[in-house]
Amino acid sequence: MRKAWYAIAFMIIISPLFGIILANMVGYHEPLDVAAEMLHLKDISDKINWTPFYNYTVPGLPDTIGYIISGVIGVTVVYVLGKLVFGGAKE
Amino acid sequence: MHIPDGYLSLPWIIGTYIVTIIYLAIAWKKARAQLTPEKAAAATTLAAAIFAAMMLNWPIPGGTSLHMVGGALAAILFGPWIASWILALVVGTQCFVFHDGGITALGANILNMGIIDVWVGYLVYKAVRKVVPGEKGIVLGAFLGGWLGIAIAGATAGIEIGLSPAFPYGIEITLPVMFTWHLLLGIIEGIITASVVYYLVKKGKWVVA
To answer: What is the CATH number of the domain that holds B26?
Structure first.
């Protein structure tokens, strides 16, 4: 299990390379965005936003650092929820 | 793969929420019966790992990218009921904390990644294992499960957004686009799924489904 957590830490540390740097270099478009563009669908996420960590950013921090901190926050939230949900199931 | 707010029409929003909530309620009963303390700890770790893996977008020159989803991997390691809850936790966290995927589309996103990907991946894996025995069957099944799980989940997202807008022929555009791209990019998901499953089997650390 410890090795899995090392892998998680490694993925978070290198994540800006994939999620920010390379994505900016090649232009980031998922197939979903491509299909939606063809239909002229409008993403209204920014108009009804509720979180300070919108799109894996942290206010006041550069995108790369924000992405790493978002990774830590996300993994922590998932871990706590997992403990609550799956931990609550074992009896 | 995460559908944002604004893409789905009201009937699809309501329909996908209802299906997902009913399914998760059933899955919870089934998962509850299967969870041991060891499995609970491992499922929590896999959920955290899938969250981290989803942050790694693989950009493809030409402007397209995809990220790991992990539905098939979770299903092969834990069975589909626990796997659906693993994905639901991840996709829910992405939505509520990072607004990755819309709140109106949360039902659809869990349906695509936590139900369709999970079940397609699982059923393909099981079918291959019946035909191909031993370690080969495990690796080939995991590869095809990971690959086709993504392809079908992508196609489902294409159907959902294609049938949503007022434009009546949307699905004729979105379905081929989503299916073709995910069929292509899903090969990477298949390779990762097979690699992780093979590693765990070789280490003797996990009894796969």
So the answer is: 1.10.1760.20
Could you tell me if A13 lies within 8 Å of chain B, comparing CB atoms?
no
ipTM: 0.92
**Are the beta carbons of A45 and B6 separated by less than 8 Å?**
yes
Q: Can you give the residue range of the structural domain that contains B141?
A: 10-202
pLDDT tens across the length of chain B (209 residues): 899 998 999 999 999 999 999 999 999 999 999 999 999 999 999 999 999 999 998 776 666 777 889 999 999 999 999 999 999 999 999 999 999 999 999 999 999 999 999 999 999 999 999 999 999 999 999 999 999 999 999 999 999 989 887 666 788 888 998 899 899 889 999 999 999 999 998 887 666 66
Scanning every residue of chain B, which has its alpha carbon at the shortest distance from the alpha carbon of A91?
B36
Chain B: residue whose CA lies nearest to A42: B6
Residues B96/A80, Cβ–Cβ less than 8 Å: no
Does some domain include residue B115?
yes
Per the structure, how many domains does chain A have? 1
Q: How many residues does chain A have?
A: 91
Residues of A in contact with B157 (CB under 8 A): 32
- Would residue B2 count as lying in a domain? no
> Number of structural domains, chain B?
1
